Amino acid sequence: MELFYQSTRSKSKPVKASQAILKGLADDGGLYVPEAIPTLDKGLEEFSHMTYQETAYEVMKLFLTDFTEDELKDCINKAYDSKFDTEVMTPLVEADGAYYLELFHGATIAFKDMALSILPHLLITSARKNNVSNEIVILTATSGDTGKAALAGFADVKGTKIIVFYPKNGVSPIQEKQMVTQKGDNTFVVGITGNFDDAQTGVKKLFGDKELEKQMADAGFQFSSANSINIGRLVPQVVYYVYAYAQLLKEGKLENGEKLNVVVPTGNFGNILAAYFAKHMGVPIAKLICASNENKVLYDFFETGIYDKNREFILTSSPSMDILISSNLERLIYMTAGCDADKNAAFMNSLSKQGKYEITHDMKNAMTDFCGGYATEQETADTIKALYEKTGYVIDTHTAVAATVLNKYKAATGDNTKTVVASTASPFKFTRSVMNAIDKKYDSMGDFELADELSKLANVKIPKAIDEIRTAPVLHNTVCDKEDMKAVVMKFLGI
Questions:
Q1: In angstroms, rounded to a whole number, what is the distance separating the alpha carbons of residues 145 and 139?
Q2: How many domains does the chain divide into?
Q3: Fewer Cβ close by (within 10 Å): the C or N end of the chain?
């Protein structure tokens, strides 16, 4: 049965999966949501004997119903190959009573690789299916990880260009070096003098600019997105939650049907929404624990039902979560509002104009799957140190936010359900913050010296992604004000 996708903001005509992937964002500014979340058509016991690639096919075929088996398998095989540095692409590491789902073994050592390795292939296949002759321009805002993962995925992919905007002073030195050294004639990286929300808002404005759309079409271009607003990003993320449960089943760590909690360090809400989709497909997930850093807009939302971005924006040691407008939350709002596009559009209009909205009591009751927690900077550092000293296992700052929130949740509730923590980045991506947390004596070292020291400390080989950028030349040095993003895009495209 074919699954169609609807915009969250209007009752416009539903589109096929390939059309939703191509567009990225709906014409009315809404996000695409499947008309129903499909149910797994295989048992979890069966999944426990599958490879990651086989699991990906079984999950994604249910969402991307206008792709043929050959098309989808071709995308999967091209994406999930030798660019991952472990045989099991998303290994589970047991440490201090939790299972850490390591999602950072791809080319750019962050969880975004899991979806951004396959998105270019889904996009090119979608373009072919819909007879698109324009060159596709991927326009993306990043708080640190999406940018590099998207650049790596799309570099030199025929028929595409990619433009990434990042907050100039809002990412880690390693994250910035990864982006500005990116090779590829079709890649363009721009630092903006603003924060991530400025970059994300600017990108959404460009998507909605009808005059620019016409100018681009005349020049043979059209926009698409690699951000998690693209359903082609969200669907592949569902896979690793299904796979994680199946692996725990295979290893005898879970009984079939036993409930599992999931903790996700959350910024733009896509990764935890993927876990919500997995739950509704039939994975026995109990609580979805949404972990925030000091930018705790989501924690406050789950506590009060009020989403309010009118607050100080705090730069933290977990920059990928330094976000006050969590774009993917809109999908959850739409679904819990009974898929009422008008109701959702009113909330989003209120967010745009007043910077806040309040959901109804019934909607809040429909979100009891979720609970929120947050970690201060000090708590995050303390968790890194404590976990290392207790177990020898070293985690990055984002994963440490999740681990802190898990500890607080267990203390507050007494809930000892087995738990998977989404480990979203390698500690090598945030060496200074990680090493400083373990011991302040490391602060005098350079970033790459710290990587060498971390390798010794954690007894883990330095990832190829770090070694590659040690001596790589800077290829991108454009910086602009947020008001000049459109001019920068037009100049790069030669319009």
A1: 15
A2: 1
A3: N
